[in-house]
């Protein structure tokens, strides 16, 4: 059994980066941008409505306040401020999720915040505090063994292991930075093969060729990857064809 998630709602005003409706036909969980790295009230409302209609679980993709940098620039935000900003983003999305007859089911940091929370216990604890401040003990989606998961476990929040279909990995199980070679996988055959291997609990290859096992309850496909919607359809079909149940974890 595996969950398939993707980043949705990554647009602003008339600008749209992700093909939300097409991705919603394949994924089981939607990481919806909450306005800090992308997204706006109109987009958030629309994607929540469409996700609810499709039976796709809604997740809050929280970020540093960085529209200009798409949330991919690391920032030194005071923990109390970050906790408040995380709670603010969750609360904003919850309004639109409830209006659509659904609810926010989990939280996932985006971009630089996601990567910072792998190794920074202070920022990780602030994200978890923000989840708790929002009022519901939501599951937190992140890398296995991360500081984010340690903070979530310490606070009694469910920590859900995630693996990436289209990102390169270092031998230690962390992601290759986007500024380095091998950060993105653009070979569809390789991406599909990796997804099947992860779902079956088999080893995959790190960027240096070393074998790596990625324990995961959820697989992420980036919505802004070229051809993401078509790739998501293929991944879903391959998982279904292999007898692997694709179901939301939340």
TrEMBL record:
Annotated Pfam families: LamB_YcsF (PF03746)
The reaction(s) this protein catalyses: 5-oxo-L-proline + ATP + 2 H2O = L-glutamate + ADP + phosphate + H(+)
Superkingdom of origin organism: Bacteria
Keywords recorded for this protein, A-Z: ATP-binding, Hydrolase, Nucleotide-binding
Transmembrane regions: none
Tagged with keyword Hydrolase: yes
Record Gene3D superfamilies: Glycoside hydrolase/deacetylase
SUPFAM superfamilies per UniProt: Glycoside hydrolase/deacetylase
EC number(s) reported in the record: 3.5.2.9
Similarity field: Belongs to the LamB/PxpA family.
Complex formation: Forms a complex composed of PxpA, PxpB and PxpC.
Function: Catalyzes the cleavage of 5-oxoproline to form L-glutamate coupled to the hydrolysis of ATP to ADP and inorganic phosphate.
Protein name: 5-oxoprolinase subunit A
Organism expressing this protein natively: Streptomyces ovatisporus
């Amino acid at each position: 059994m595996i969950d398939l998630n993707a980043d949705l709602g990554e647009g602003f005003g008339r600008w749209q980066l992700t093909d939300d409706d097409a991705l919603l036909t394949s994924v089981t969980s939607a990481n919806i941008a909450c306005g800090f790295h992308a997204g706006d009230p109109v987009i958030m409302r629309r994607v929540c409505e469409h996700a609810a209609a499709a039976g796709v679980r809604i997740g809050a993709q929280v970020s540093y306040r960085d529209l200009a940098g798409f949330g991919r620039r690391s920032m030194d935000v005071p923990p109390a401020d970050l906790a408040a900003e995380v709670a603010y983003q969750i609360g904003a999305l919850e309004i639109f999720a409830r209006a659509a007859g659904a609810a926010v089911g989990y939280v996932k940091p985006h971009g630089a915040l996601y990567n910072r929370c792998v190794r920074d216990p202070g920022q990780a604890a602030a994200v978890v505090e923000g989840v708790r401040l929002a009022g519901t003990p939501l599951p937190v989606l992140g890398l296995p063994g991360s500081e984010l998961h340690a903070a979530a476990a310490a606070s009694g929040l469910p920590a859900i292991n995630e693996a990436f279909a289209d990102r390169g990995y270092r031998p230690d199980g962390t992601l290759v930075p986007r500024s380095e070679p091998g950060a993105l996988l653009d070979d569809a055959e390789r991406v599909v093969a990796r997804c099947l291997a992860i779902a079956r609990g088999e080893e995959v290859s790190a960027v240096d060729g070393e074998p790596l096992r990625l324990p995961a309850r959820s697989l992420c496909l980036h919505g802004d990857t070229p051809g993401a919607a078509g790739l998501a359809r293929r991944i879903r079909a391959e998982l279904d064809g292999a007898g692997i149940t694709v179901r939301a974890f939340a």
